[in-house]
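Figure caption, in words: inputs first, then the predicted bound structure.
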Amino acid sequence: MKIKHIQVFVCCPGRNFVTVKITTDSGVSGLGDATLNGREMAVVAYLEEHVAPCLVGRDPQSIEDIWQYLYKGAYWRRGPVTMAAIAAIDMALWDIKGKIAGLPVYQLLGGKSRKGVNLYAHANGESIEDTLDKAAELKDQGFKAIRLQSAIPGLPVTYGVLGDKKDYFELQGNRPLPPEEVWSTQKYFALIADLFAQARDKLGTDVHLLHDVHNRLTPIEAAKLGKILEPFDLLFLEDPCMAENQDSLSVVRTHATTPLAIGESYNTIHDCREMIQNRWIDYIRTAATHAGGITAMRRIADFASLFDVKTAPHGAPDLSPVCFAAHMHLDIWAPNFGIQEYVGEGNAESLQIFKHDIKVKDGMAFVGDAPGLGIEFDEKAAAKYPYNRSYLPVSRLEDGTVWHW
Ligand code: GCO
Ligand code: MG
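Bound structure (magnesium ion present):
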């Protein structure tokens, strides 16, 4: 069997998605997600100009060899563009392998370790009250883990809060130039303990609570936050500070027992190694699309398991449903799976394009038994929603200094 051709599709059903389709000479095809929010076309060029021509004619069943060829074989390793391209090829090859074997990908990984995949949902509110009303609704729907983000009084926009957008899918989409947002650590600290104190009062103790700081704090501020939140027993505190210097997390660790999660923007196992082996984190948040596909995620999960670190894959709406499908197979298999981020199944336009058989009930996702990844891509429907240049916001402090977004 040989790879006959590789196509790259970009569509924008509210968010831009880059989808790779590999077709073999026997007619079997596979899908992968190569979406890199705000830099989509760079990955398209990388795939079309530099990857696809090298793969045509190769055996699609040699997943590991192709992964190594694209990673080690290119002198320029790592980085988000390269790794998103490798990820999409890798996912599509696993999809093909499953279809050839007549098995869902989780069976190829080793089978199910659990009956379903625990999800955490998002409650994003304009005030503490609004956030907690939304969280109570999610709890009533059966979610057992909820991430709380609330607008910060005195700041016009806060990370994660919907503002005038109808749903989370729309947030961060369709912005032809980067919008700018303002951040104040002082104003954030004035709110955060109250949010979680009131959350425990209203929601009780039988629901897991989570929070994403989105890299806004310095290590010592993050340590202070971890300590403040200890009484409210979070499942995890995500991205408390930037961790290009991974030992920043050791500062947080020294002061607080609030569990830590990090890694949604990391591209390789090397980016995660130090914090995993030093047990500076409890959950590793890498995504199949940004960290090199199923092959790489399996390796990260196995490495993390040696150090009691669980997986908690990124599940924001800028990862396409193809990535979500890949995560389902990894999550149901990984012995050290922790929890999957879930922001709903997407809008009506996206559901026309991507068809899958994943069912969500009572805060848990159930993976279907279709061979491969179990996801289909409707090219005609996708063509109705062409690419729209769009960026994430840029963050500044109140005095105008560029800050971490
Ligand atoms: C999350 C993330 C997202 C990111 C987005 C960036 O935890 O869901 O932090 O909200 O901001 O995916 O591309
Ligand atoms: Mg995050």
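The domain at 108-371 is CATH 3.20.20.120 (TIM Barrel).
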